[in-house]
Structures are given as C-alpha cells and as structure tokens.
Design goal:
This protein has 4 helices and 3 strands, in the order αααβαββ. By secondary structure, it is α+β, with helices and mostly antiparallel strands. A 3-stranded antiparallel sheet has the order 1-3-2, with helices on one face.
Length: about 130
Amino acid sequence: MMAQLILRLAIWFLLTANFTVVNIIIGISVALLLPRSYTPPARLQDLLTVLGKIIMAIPQAYIEAVELIIRPHNQEEIVMERVKSRRSPGLVFLDIFLITFTPKTIVVKYHEEGWYEVHRVQRRKKSC
C-alpha cells in the first residue's frame, strides 16, 4: 500500500513539476483519495520480462526515428496482435506502452477478448 502511495505521489510530481508545500499537500491528498485497485499482483517474472523488453525498446525507438527521418514510410496497416494469456491490468498497460513507445507503432484499441489493434507504418514494398 505504501509503495502504491509513493508511486501515485511520484506521478503527481512528474505531472505538476511543482514542489511547493501546497502542491505536496494536494499531491498527498490526491494519492490518498484515489481508489485502491484490488487486482491480483503480477508475477515478478512477467514484470521483469516486460521491463527488460522496454529497456531493449529504447535503442529500437531511436533507430526507427532516424529511419523515419531518412526514408519516409508511406504504407500504413492495422494489425491485430494477441495478448498473452492471464495478463494483469498492469502488464497489459506495460504491453501497450511497449508497443506505443516505438515511433512506427501505436495501439489504437485494446479488445477485452484478448487482442490489441495496432497501427503500423512501414516502407512501401517495391513492386516488380
């Protein structure tokens, strides 16, 4: 519970970028008043796997950004990607963050049946 309050307070400070006494009091109040989630905790192995993928996505995001600048990507498509089974809401959020973090992909919609709708841009394939 304490970790959740600290996380909420940290997010508050990141959003407001204001460390005055009044803002700290407001942030603590908001952190205490927000409803608690009663979802089962994510397995540590799944969480570490997703965090490792996010760390690996940082250089990929830079590479894709440079590719988009140098060589335009003209073709767009929407694909459906399957959600791994038995994902907690926190892991679903991290999966969506991972997909959206790279410049060429963004999650358009999450379907409760276990699918992500992903918009991708790619280079147009040369026709012979």
